[in-house]
Amino acid sequence: MSSIEDRVSKLEEEVFGKKGREKNWRSTVGMFGNDPFMNDVIEGALDSREQERQKARESAERESQ
Description:
The protein is mainly α and 65 residues long.
């Protein structure tokens, strides 16, 4: 049986990554794929952006009159 140090070292390698692993945007795509919290964050951001668009449209309409 391996020592606890060996086991912890192996777990750390799995959790924190292995040497030579490619680090770019491709490694993060889909990282939060069915995460309910991230879905809420994205939905909130989209709602906020839509409200900003609506305000901008209203402002542009008032200025054009």
